[in-house]
Amino acid sequence: MTSTDTNKPRRRFFSPLDMHQGRVDLSHGGGGRAMAQLIAEVFHYHLNNDLLRQGNDQALFGPLRGRLVMSTDGHVVAPLFFNGGNIGSLAVHGTINDVAMAGARPLYLAAGFILEEGLPLADLERIVISMAEACKTAGVPIVTGDTKVVERGKADGCFITTTGVGEVPEGINISGERATPGDAVLVSGTLGDHGIAILSQRENLGFGTDICSDSAALHDLVAAMVEAVPEIHCLRDPTRGGLAATLNELAAQAGVGMQLREAEIPVKAGVRAACEFLGLDPLHIANEGKLIAICPASAAERLVNTMRQHPLGREAAIIGEVVKDPQQLIELETPFGGRRLLDWLTGEQLPRIC
Amino acid sequence: MKFVDEYRDGPLARDLARAIAAEVRPDRDYRLMEFCGGHTHAIFRYGVQDLMPGNLRFVHGPGCPVCVLPMARIDQAIAMATQHPITLCTYGDLMRVPASQRQSLLKAKAAGADIRMVYSTQDALAIARAAPGQPVVFFAIGFETTTPPTAVALNTARAEGLNNFSVFCNHVLTPPALRAILSDSTEQGAHIDGILGPSHVSSIIGSEAYAFVAKDHGLPLVIAGFEPLDVMQSALMLVRLINQGASELHNQYRRAVSPEGNRKAQALMQATFAPRDSFEWRGLGWLPHSALRLADDYQDYDAEQRFPVTLGDSREIQGCECPKVLRGLIEPTDCKLFGHPCSPENPMGACMVSSEGACAAYWSYGRSPRQSTST
Q1: How far apart are CA A213 and CA A86, in angstroms?
Q2: At which of A118, A143, A168 does a domain end?
Q3: B51 touching A (Cβ < 8 Å)
Q4: In a domain, A77, yes or no
């Protein structure tokens, strides 16, 4: 051995991770070289950006101007891979959307992974690649992260928590309590796609459908909306519990009721059919790429037209209005000619949907 | 959606509503009992009551399998799952039904019992196949509609030699329940002018199974489908029969129900099950020959035999009026517990749990509508 050999930086890892046959084991979370290798070859390699490459336990950025919003979201969906996405893209879209629902421009994301011993590295890589693609499309990087590994049986493959920071433009003031009697209620597209796509791939249900999850980042749509209609009062994405839960939440927050026209609420025929035979209401089913907007009635047409010009808002519709109601009820006019309440979903009939 | 939207057509509903309004006599009331929870659900989901004239009321019947299961049977299931190392498979609805001592299957599961929510008997069989040494019990409930699938599961288990599979049988029969309600209504019970007869149950047992309603009780019965237009058309048929004073059996749901029913399913049920001498129903008490147990030939698959339990007293929650609601004696809103504290999030009685329960339907769809309704 010559002196030059000993001075040469040692190769960091003896052999690359086996992405075809390999599996996550406890050493990948143990703080040793195996963990460093997993982070380097999977996370840093695919999520690559300047802030992540700083290589610290935190990302240093800024200074930022104006008002900031921050949001966090845990993802435990089963199965991990589904029609229209996987837990990785879902984790990126979910948090971007939560930040965007303040009318904000999302800037940075953080991601925490809880991996179950035995998870195929190929699956992990697929998940991380799809996160990287989702980040790239959205223009929002993951700048810091964390990985833990738990024993087999203590998790279900992979859980991901993402946290996001965003900046709210001047003059935008969006919050649930601003829903005011007389306001119009809008949705950005068809409801129930995500929940039905997931359910159709559950082992014990497994029915054939071409319904894809609507998982998508909505910040670009939101940017177009707040530019055209800065006076938007509320934005929210109807995830778990669907439209019903989100509108009931908003009604309670603002102390108002809502009157909706069921015939105007867009639902795909395939989603309706699946709900019909599963005994579910599409308005209770989760969405991951849809939003509800509430704005002054005078701006509703302008807003719906703006939304329809965006690829994620083509099927946007005005579905009803906010009314004065101390009971804070959401009432539907049914196409049948009767009226009914739209209540919260009770219990948890569809676990682990996002 | 084909074959669904046709039965939910708004203009047709308004035509039917006009026809009913033209037929009803202003000098009398029409109290129609819809037997099934499926009817109750449709009436509320589509606002059918709003479309009826003021003197026509729907009275809700006992046809909700979760609602009529007495608390003692839930207690027994929880005891089985906690006193024996079994996997208990159950439908989601049952998980939240209140049991004695503020228990429920959901709480027992959280406390460590191996209780799994399944969507069908096939899921339970799959769980049994995947764990050959582990006893798997299927908590079977329901009327004649869900009984044949349980029979199929039992026969599949036997054919495959799946000895770790067994059934906790709670299947009940519709005609004895109907008979009990009608016998009661002649005394202090609910006054009923006509009956919307079971829909899916009748596709199995056939419409002739209800001949006794006209013969013994002098009431008209119309077998009615579960779609809102089915319910309205059946109501119109009943109004006409009532006006004519005709106690006859008619079948509105002819697209699914024949006079003799599904003979194959009946034969399968007969071979796999035997009638119990007596069975307790919530609201109706102990009714003779009103439920099924596993036939002698299938005793090895009977969870009650295999996993005996010691049980304390089962006590229904005080003040809960489920029994009266199930007999059509009162409306859910007449119950002191309705809304506070009893709601779907915090049910005190089974009628508030199942989506087919009258209390849950009132709460979810009909609670204090904002504007007064046009009755």
Answers
A1: 9
A2: A168
A3: yes
A4: yes
CATH topology of domain B67-173+261-303: Rossmann fold (3.40.50)
pLDDT for the residue numbered A206: 64
- Say whether pLDDT at A9 is over 70: no
Tell the burial category of B3 from Cβ atoms under 10 Å away from its Cβ (0-12, 13-18, 19+): exposed
Shortest Cα distance, chain A CAs vs residue B21, angstroms: 16
Q: How far is B182 from chain A (nearest CA, A)?
A: 30
Which ranges constitute the DSSP H helices of chain A? 3-7, 33-38, 45-47, 50-53, 87-100, 121-138, 193-200, 219-228, 242-254, 269-278, 300-308
Provide the whole-model pTM. Answer: 0.86
**B365 with A343: Cβ contact below 8 A:** yes
Domain holding A216, by residue range, is 176-341
Spatial distance between the Cα atoms of A261 and B242, rounded to a whole number of angstroms: 36
Give A4's pLDDT tier (boundaries 50, 70, 90). very low
CB atoms B96 and A204 under 8 Å? no
Residues A325 and A266 in one domain: yes
Give me the residues of B, 119-138, that contact A with CB < 8 A: 119-120, 123, 126
pLDDT value of position A351: 60
Q: Considering only CB atoms, which chain A residues are within 8 Å of B44?
A: 340
- Does residue A353 lie in a domain region? no
Q: What confidence tens digit (pLDDT) does each residue in A28-42 have?
A: 998 889 999 999 999
Q: Please say if the pLDDT value at position B247 is more than 50.
A: yes
* Chain A contact present for B323, CB below 8 A: no
Tally the domains of chain A. Answer: 2
Q: Answer yes or no: do A273 and B1 touch at CB < 8 A.
A: yes
**Looking at the structure, do residues A136 and A242 belong to the same domain, yes or no?**
no
Length of chain B: 375
B14 touches chain A (CB under 8 A): yes
Q: Cα–Cα distance between A33 and B58 in angstroms, integer? A: 72
φ, ψ for residue A256, nearest 5 deg = -130, 170
Enter the tokens of residue B219: 């009431």
pLDDT recorded at residue B186 = 46
- Kindly report, residue by residue over A53-75, the tens digit of the pLDDT: 888 999 999 999 889 999 999 99
Give the model's confidence band at A161: pLDDT under 50 very low, under 70 low, under 90 confident, else very high. very high
- Closest partner residue to B8 (CB to CB) among A204, A273, A336 is A336
CATH of B5-60+176-244, one of 3.30.1120.10, 3.40.718.10, 3.40.50.11750, 3.40.640.10: 3.40.50.11750
321-340 in chain A: CB under 8 A from chain B: 323, 325, 327, 329, 331, 334-340
- The answer to whether residue B110 neighbours chain A at the CB level (below 8 Å) is no
Question: According to the model, what pLDDT value does residue B353 have?
Answer: 85
Spatial CB neighbours of B340, under 8 Å, sequence gap ≥ 6: none
Residue that terminates a domain, selected from A168, A191, A217? A168
A19 touches B: beta carbon within 8 Å: no
- Considering the domain architecture, whether residues A193 and A311 belong to the same structural domain is answered as yes
